[in-house]
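Supplementary notes (optional reading)

For those who missed the lab, this is the record we used. Protein: DUF3231 family protein. Length: 334 residues.
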Amino acid sequence: METEHNIKLTSAEIAELWSCYMTDSMAICVLSYFLNKVEDTQIKEVIEYALGLSQKHLVDVKAIMQGENFPIPKGFTMDDVNVNAPRLYSDTFFLIYLKNLGKLGLVNYAIALGHMTREDTCKFFTDCVTNATALSNMASKVMLSKGVYIKPPHVPSTESAEFVQKESFLNGWFGDKRPLNVMEISHLYLNIQTNALGKALLIGFAQTAQNDAVRDFMIRGKEIATKHVKEFSLVLTDDDIPAPMTWDTDIMDSKEPPFSDKLLMYHTVSLIASGLGNYGFAMAQSMRRDLSAMYGALMAEIGAYADDGAKLMIEKDWLEKIPQAPDRKALIQA
């Protein structure tokens, strides 16, 4: 009978720990640069908290992996960042980035926690969820105090609970197209904000990328994000609902790279993966047929973009291979 000491890591646990190590090693580089540039003391405290979390995560993940004699990913090191490069983004942008980091952590760590079986991995990801919650709340508090928190719109309350009376509730193309419901508004708002943040981030990446192919990839991503913001905003404004603002003005004119091209590519592909998840969830919760079709088409577009990003990373020898199952057919035929 197995004891707690010799229960092996499952494939799900390995996958989530590996992903966590890669993401946090990248975050340490990004946040170290932010910390060296930030001027606002309140925002500095949020960056310091986030950086401390990522550093602790790396220590904890490494300990679990080493306990299983599992190879530690290369990930990213301080060779991938120049903290002394000129400022590329404003303090406000740092804060918005941190708020998004907390939200992403909440989603990803909660999913990971649901896959865990060992006591040590369960505790690790439980702590990650708790810490991501604290980071998100801390960033929100500072954003509210500085007046930069962009809230979703308000809608009037109904007098009583209602039920759908006819199938035209699902329409979106022709005929009796109903107004957006609050679930649909919420997802449109979220996806505008994440694309606006991604657009601003990629403008900075395009300014400082050293390789021409990487620069072109960042420009393409900026154009896709711009297009998607316009499409989501149009859906809102058609119902006389205001669209949220973007943060293009928070990018400086520096061209000196703070990050390696390898880090730029990994960060961008990670954003794409998050975007695909957001769109898929939005599609599942949007009942108007035109919205489902819109999300499906946009997912196909960013899916193709992600595929081209993976090809470029392979070409440059930047794509670290995630652990995989043995190739039994090759072993048998060897």
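If you only remember one thing from this example: The two ends are 35 Å apart (CA to CA).
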